[in-house]
From TrEMBL:
<dbReference type="InterPro" id="IPR050192">
    <property type="entry name" value="CopG/NikR_regulator"/>
</dbReference>
<keyword id="KW-0479">Metal-binding</keyword>
<dbReference type="GO" id="GO:0010045">
    <property type="term" value="P:response to nickel cation"/>
</dbReference>
<dbReference type="InterPro" id="IPR002145">
    <property type="entry name" value="CopG"/>
</dbReference>
<keyword id="KW-0804">Transcription</keyword>
<keyword id="KW-0805">Transcription regulation</keyword>
<dbReference type="GO" id="GO:0003677">
    <property type="term" value="F:DNA binding"/>
</dbReference>
<dbReference type="InterPro" id="IPR013321">
    <property type="entry name" value="Arc_rbn_hlx_hlx"/>
</dbReference>
<dbReference type="Pfam" id="PF01402">
    <property type="entry name" value="RHH_1"/>
</dbReference>
<keyword id="KW-0238">DNA-binding</keyword>
<keyword id="KW-0533">Nickel</keyword>
<comment type="similarity">
    <text>Belongs to the transcriptional regulatory CopG/NikR family.</text>
</comment>
<dbReference type="InterPro" id="IPR045865">
    <property type="entry name" value="ACT-like_dom_sf"/>
</dbReference>
<dbReference type="InterPro" id="IPR014864">
    <property type="entry name" value="TF_NikR_Ni-bd_C"/>
</dbReference>
<dbReference type="InterPro" id="IPR022988">
    <property type="entry name" value="Ni_resp_reg_NikR"/>
</dbReference>
<dbReference type="Pfam" id="PF08753">
    <property type="entry name" value="NikR_C"/>
</dbReference>
<feature type="domain" description="Transcription factor NikR nickel binding C-terminal">
    <location>
        <begin position="58"/>
        <end position="134"/>
    </location>
</feature>
Amino acid sequence: MESELSRIGVSIPVDLLSRFDEIMHQTGYSSRSEGIRDSIKSYIKYYEWVCEVKGERVGIISVIYNPSQHGISEKFSSIKYSYPEILISTSSIYISEREILEVIILQGNAEEIKLFNENIMAQKGVKYVRLSTIELTND
């Protein structure tokens, strides 16, 4: 059972909210609030999953970001240089004038991979980040 409701005010870019509203309509949500609640629940479940990842892993981070965001390239480079022991490979492609898709492959301790991921997520201009991991086995 959910606890009592709290009202909040959130600033969201118009194009993002419009796209969200389209999806809510297509999927049959009765209200924007219901869709936002489900989105928050999904984010919490994903975050909890990431927090449970332990041990030696291979990590794949998919990032979409705006290359014209001031300083983002330098910040990404700085993050990558801060983790030389786990960074295996990166690949980037322009998917539009304002979006680059970067795939980052890491190998090492799950805690370090999660820190790397959180540093990328925190950058202004990042539109999407998804971490997937695979447990390393001795088979």
